[in-house]
Amino acid sequence: MNLERLNAHLDASFDRHLERLREFVRQPSISGEGAGMQEMAGMVRDAIRGLGGSADVVATPGWPVVHGAIDAGRPKTLLLYGMYDVQPVEGEDWLVPPFAGEIVDLPEVGRSIVARGVYNTKGPLAGLFNVLQSIQAVDGRLPVNVKFVIEGEEELGSRNLPGFIQAHKDRLRADATYFPFFCQDRNGKPVLWLGVKGIQYFEVSCRGGGWGGPRTRGVHGSNAVWVGSPAWRLLHALATMMDDEEQIRIDGFYDDVAPPSAEDQALLDNLSKTFDPETHLAMWDAERFKYRLQGAPLLRQYLYNPTLNIDGIWGGYTGPGMKTLLPHEVRAKMDVRLVPEMQPDRVREKILAHLARIGRSDIAVHFYDGYPPAKTSVNEAAVQAMIRTLKALHGEPEIWPHLAGSAPFYLFREVLGQPFVMGGLGHGGRPHSPNEYATVDGVRAFERSVARFLHEFAAV
Amino acid sequence: MNLERLNAHLDASFDRHLERLREFVRQPSISGEGAGMQEMAGMVRDAIRGLGGSADVVATPGWPVVHGAIDAGRPKTLLLYGMYDVQPVEGEDWLVPPFAGEIVDLPEVGRSIVARGVYNTKGPLAGLFNVLQSIQAVDGRLPVNVKFVIEGEEELGSRNLPGFIQAHKDRLRADATYFPFFCQDRNGKPVLWLGVKGIQYFEVSCRGGGWGGPRTRGVHGSNAVWVGSPAWRLLHALATMMDDEEQIRIDGFYDDVAPPSAEDQALLDNLSKTFDPETHLAMWDAERFKYRLQGAPLLRQYLYNPTLNIDGIWGGYTGPGMKTLLPHEVRAKMDVRLVPEMQPDRVREKILAHLARIGRSDIAVHFYDGYPPAKTSVNEAAVQAMIRTLKALHGEPEIWPHLAGSAPFYLFREVLGQPFVMGGLGHGGRPHSPNEYATVDGVRAFERSVARFLHEFAAV
User: Using an 8 Å Cβ cutoff, are A146 and A72 in contact?
Assistant: First the structure.
C-alpha cells in the first residue's frame, strides 16, 4: 500500500467524496419514524457492491441490517461496524434544513456540513466507503479483507442487532471490529475511546385508575381539588428516584458499579493531564459541571457513575395560552447509562422494585432493549494500530478508558470474542441536537486516517 | 308576559332555535389561538342588533367585548354576562369534528349537540338570544331592560374584562347580573351555584444557566452524568410545593383561606342530603376521590380548599421511539383555584417566596392575570327568582354555596356592586375536554327556564 500515492488520490477525489457524503446525509433515515430507511439501506448495500463486494439487506423484526464482505485475499480481516439510521429532528430549530446536506461557515469551527447524521454517523460511514474506493483505485485491492455489519436501529438501542450477530456469528469472525468515527475535539485534539457505556432506555406513564385520577380523558381543572392528579403522582414517584443533588435513590442501584480497573486508573491519571474541561463545557453548552470536582475525580464521575436521565416528559395541555385541565396521563422517557459491571436486566429489576417499594406499581414502565457496557484493552493490536495512525498523522491522542455514550459493542467483545476499536481523525458535533455538523477539513483528515489505519492494522 | 303563549312559541320555534345554536358552535372562536374571534364577536353583536338593541364590538388590548343594551322601558334592568370564546381542541380525540355542530346519540345522555363550546358556553348564549326573540314576538317587548357584556377572553382568565368594566361602570349598572348556563346534572337534577372560585394561572420554566445545565439547546443524553438537568431541577422544585398526599406545602398558602360562613355551612349541610358522589365521579371519569371523606366534609374540601394543579408539563424529546437527550428546558402550566378570602396577588407572592426559599429563583414564573372568588347570598332577589323558576319547572334545586370552577364574577359583585345569579335548566358536559356536549332536550328546557326567570325577576 503506497500511502503517498493513496493520499494524492484522496486529495484529487475529495470534491467527489464530499458530494457522496452529502448524498448520504440527504437521504433521511430516522429509525424512530421510518421515513427513508429502506432507501438508505439500499444506498449502503450499493456502496459495498460498488466496491466489488457481496452485500445484502438482511431483514430483521425491525429495520434491516446491511451485511457484506470483500475478500481481498489477505491474511487479516476487519469487521466494519456502522449504522445507517439517525435521530429524529421533530421540534428542532435548524439553521438549514436537516436533510439538505448544506455547507455552512460555522462561527467557531469553520466550513461544515450541517445535517442530521453527518457526525452520528453517516458522515464517517460515507467517508469509509470513499477510502476503500481510493485504495482499490490506487492499489488494486484492499490491504485487509473486510466484512460489514451496518445496522439501522442503533438509535433505537440496536434492538435486533443481538439476534443478527448470534445468527450470523460464523460469517462475522474477524481479527477485530472497527467503528469509523470523527474523533477530534473542536480544538483538533484526537481522542481515542477504548469502550462505551451500556444503556437501558424506558418510558414511564402514570394515568388515573384504582388509586384515583381521571382514567380516560383530561377533565376540567377545577376537579384537581378532589380528584387525584396523575401529574403530581408521577412527579412524586420520580422525585424519589433521584435526590436534589442528582444522586440516584433507587435501592441497590450502585451495587454493581465497579471502580476503575488498574489499567483504567492509569489511563485516567494520564488523561487528566490533557483533559480540558472548558472544551467540554462549551460543547455541551453549560456554564459548569454538576460536581464541584476537577481532573481525575471529575473524569471518574463522568465515566464510572451511572445516570438516570429524563430525556423527555409530557402530559396535559401544552399549547399556547391558558387551559385548565386535570390531565389523565403524564409520561416520561428516561434512560440509565450503564457503567462497567452493570447489567440491563438488573437495572430493570431495581426500577420496578423501587416503584413497588413506594407503592406506585400502577405506574407503567415500558423498557426498550438495553445492553451492557463494553471495553477493549489499550494493548490490543487494533488499538495500537489506531494509536500509531493518530500519532503519525497528527500527534499523541488523548486516550479515554471509554466514552460516556453508548453503543452495543458488547456484541463484538462478548459474542464474537474479538477486540474492537473506534475512531479516526475528523471533527463533528451536536449529535442528537439541532445543527449537527462535521467540518469539511475534518472529513479530509478522516479519510487519510482511515487509509493509514488499514495500513497499520494490516502490517501488524 | 303570557308564559303559556310564550312556551307555545318556543316549542314552535325550536327547530329554528336549535339551528341557530348550531351556527354559534360551528363558528370556531378559540381565544388562545385567535381563529374566528372577530367573526364570532360579530355574530354576537348582530344577534343583539337583531333584537332591536344597540350593540358594539368594543376593542380591548386583547379580544373585544361585545357591549349592548335593549331598553324595554321597564323598571328593572338585568346585565347579561356571557363569553363568546372557547377552549382549544389541539391534540384531542373527538367523535365528530369539534366545530361541525353535529348531533350525536350519546350512550348515557341521549341526543346531544357534540361541539366545542356548546356547553361552555355558546350553547346557553345562543339559547338566551332565542328566548329574547320569542318574548318579543309574543309580548312585543321584554319584561326587563337588558344590558350585555359578552367577553372573548374568559378562557384566558378574562384579562381585559376588569379594565372594560371599570371604564364602562356607569353604563353597566343594573339590578343584577345574570350568567345563563345549563345547570342540570346528568340525572336531571337542577343545580344552583351561588358563586365561583377565583383563579391564578401561571407557567413555570426551568432552563440551564448559572446553576448548571445546557443553556440553549438539548444535548446528548450521556452528558446527564456531569451536566445538571433542568428536568430534574424543575421536578424537585415542584415536588416541594405539594406533598405526596396532595397537601400544598407553600409557606402560608392556607393563611387566607376562610372557613364556610354560617350561611354557607347551612347550605352545605343541606346540600349533603342530595349530593350524589357517584354522579360526580362518573362526570369526572374517576374511580374515587382523593379524600376518604363523604357528605359535608367531602364537599367542604371541594369548595373551601385551594388547589395547585398541573395543567400540563413538557420538555425534551416526546416523539416516538428512543432519543437520548438532556433537555435544556422543561415547562409546566399550573393553576391555583382561589377559595373565599384568597387574593391572587397574595398567591403570586407566596409562590415566588417559596421558590426563593428553596433556592430556585432561577425558575422563571409567568403569571397570567388572576382574579379572586365571588359569592352572592341565597337571599338576593335575583337568586330567589331563579329558585322559584327551577321549583316551578322542575322541582327543588340543589343549592351549592359556590362552584369549584372560576369566573370573574367579583367584577359584578365588587366593582359594579350588584348581585349575580347564574343558571337555568339544561344539561351539558365535558367542558375543556373532547366531546363536549349539550343535550337537545336540555336546550329546550333551558329556553323555558330563561323565559320564566325573566318573568320571575321582573315580578319581584
Answer: yes
